[in-house]
Amino acid sequence: MSFHVDSETGRLRRVILHRPGLELKRLTPSNKADLLFDDVLWVRRAQEEHDRFAALLRGRGVEVHLFGDLLTESLDVPAARTLVLDRVFDEREYGPLATDTLRAAFDALPTGELAEALVGGVTKREYLERHPAPASVRFHVMGLDDFLLNPLPNHIFTRDTSAWVYDGVAINAMRWPARQRESVHFEAIYRHHPLFTGAAAGEFRTWAEGQGAHPSTIEGGDVLVIGNGAVLVGLSERTTPQAVELLAKRLFEAGSARTIVALDMPKRRAFMHLDTVLTMVDGETFTQYAGLGMLPSYTIEPGGDGQELKVTDHPPEHMHRAIAAALGIGAIRVLTPVQDVHSAEREQWDDGCNVLAVEPGVVVAYERTVTANAHLRAQGFEVLEVAGSELGRGRGGPRCMSCPVERDPVS
Ligand SMILES: NC(=[NH2+])NCCC[C@H](N)C(=O)O
Q1: Which DSSP string corresponds to 143-201?
Q2: Which residues participate directly in catalysis (predicted)?
Q3: 3-state helix, strand, coil in the chain (%, to 5)
């Protein structure tokens, strides 16, 4: 039983979720925007909502792996600990006077505490409760309540940091500083956790390695494994064309995919990822936000005649046609509930389109997106509702909060 994701809606077998913790208690009105949140959360309630989301998936036969456990268990592996600490404690971040001291202090922590520090963050005050101050300008100039290690509240959106595409995983380079440190945690997990290195894991490929502050950023919310060797990608605020070309080369070289359709999306926070406006509900049906409109698209395929990639441009009106052609079907079905523009905009903001399928035709959605859910039901889909009054404040729904690692094709 190896790891692979062959579709968006085939039977979901295993998924990585992150139960929110300390990192969300760090959100304040003054730091929330930099940390990519729109509000502060009542963390206890968010945990309850998240626990019910996980329980619902388990009840549907999905095996849930919690990111916090995976990270802690990975850090028990010396090579994983070294990988993470080397990446985090960089002289360019902490300066030559403090880096080694800080690294040693964190390296001395038991794995559970190290994992919590890496994700939940540590203030200068908390550090000084247990350690003397290093003789470092970088350290001395910090306010007592400044973060020595920033919290990573967006780890809850496990969809984005890594993305399984057919028989491999892309560990993503993230667009904004608030999320860039997340990637090394997934690198440690996929490279060193016994779940992924053990014999039972089988072989899987790696499409991207996640590092670097370069423009080749890509986030999993923009990547839809639509099935039949096709991938749909959003060129969004977060995902750049160069990253998609690199992904295409790797996928085609391995023979793992045949075609990628890239949609040129508006570069706006409300539409930050493709899955905030378009997701799949079965093998040929999509739920789409009314305000998205039709977008220019590009089909990328392996090139003949020594050209590495073949690119075909499509005008906006051919967007759905290009997706259908990639899937190898005559037409796709696109569902958009009929509602006034204001209600539609509110439901998009509340992740009405961000559904997670557990099998073809059965999706998990937030309960608050009443019109979108009713519309799917009227079309014959089963909608399993979860509460999201707190969870939703980070701008991510059930699809964003889940990273499938094993999912069947749609037959
Ligand atoms: N796949 C998604 N739509 N993820 C939503 C991520 C939301 C998160 N606050 C961010 O701004 O990065």
Answers
A1: -TTSEEE---GGGG-HHHHEEEEBTEEEEPPPSSHHHHTHHHHHHHHHHH-HHHHSGGG
A2: 400
A3: 40, 20, 35
Q: Which amino acid is at 159?
A: R
Distance 60 CA to ligand 1 centre (A): 25
- pLDDT band at residue 158 under the 50/70/90 scheme: very high
248 vs 307: CA distance, rounded Å: 13
**Confidence (pLDDT) at 306:** 60
Distance CA 71, CA 68 (A): 5
Residue 403 among the catalytic residues? no
Between these two residues, 1 and 289, which has the higher pLDDT value? 289
Instruction: Tell me whether 0.90 is exceeded by the ipTM.
Output: yes
What are 3-37's pLDDT values in tens digits?
Answer: 999 999 999 999 999 999 999 999 999 999 999 99
b/e string for 219-251 if b means 16 or more Cβ within 10 A?
bbbbbbbbbbbbbbbbbbbbbbbebbbbbbebb
* Separation between Cα atoms, residue 120 and residue 392, nearest integer Å: 20
Indicate the top mutation candidate among 273, 351, 402 to test ligand 1's pocket, ranked by most ligand atoms within 8 A of CB. Answer: 273
Intervals of CATH 3.75.10.10 along the chain: 4-67+153-407
The residues, ordered by sequence, that sit 6+ positions from 246 with a Cβ below 8 Å of its Cβ are 208, 216
Strand (E) positions, 317-377? Answer: 333-335, 356-359, 362-366
284 vs 9: CA distance, rounded Å: 10
Class of the domain covering 4-67+153-407: alpha beta
Pairing label, strands 205-209, 168-171: parallel
Phi, psi of 259, rounded to the nearest 5 degrees = -155, 145
- Tell me yes or no: is domain 71-149 CATH 1.10.3930.10: yes
The structure's pTM equals 0.96
* Mean pLDDT, residues 244-250: 96
Among protein residues, the one with the nearest Cα to ligand 1's atom 11 is 36
Q: Where in the chain is the domain with CATH 1.10.3930.10?
A: 71-149
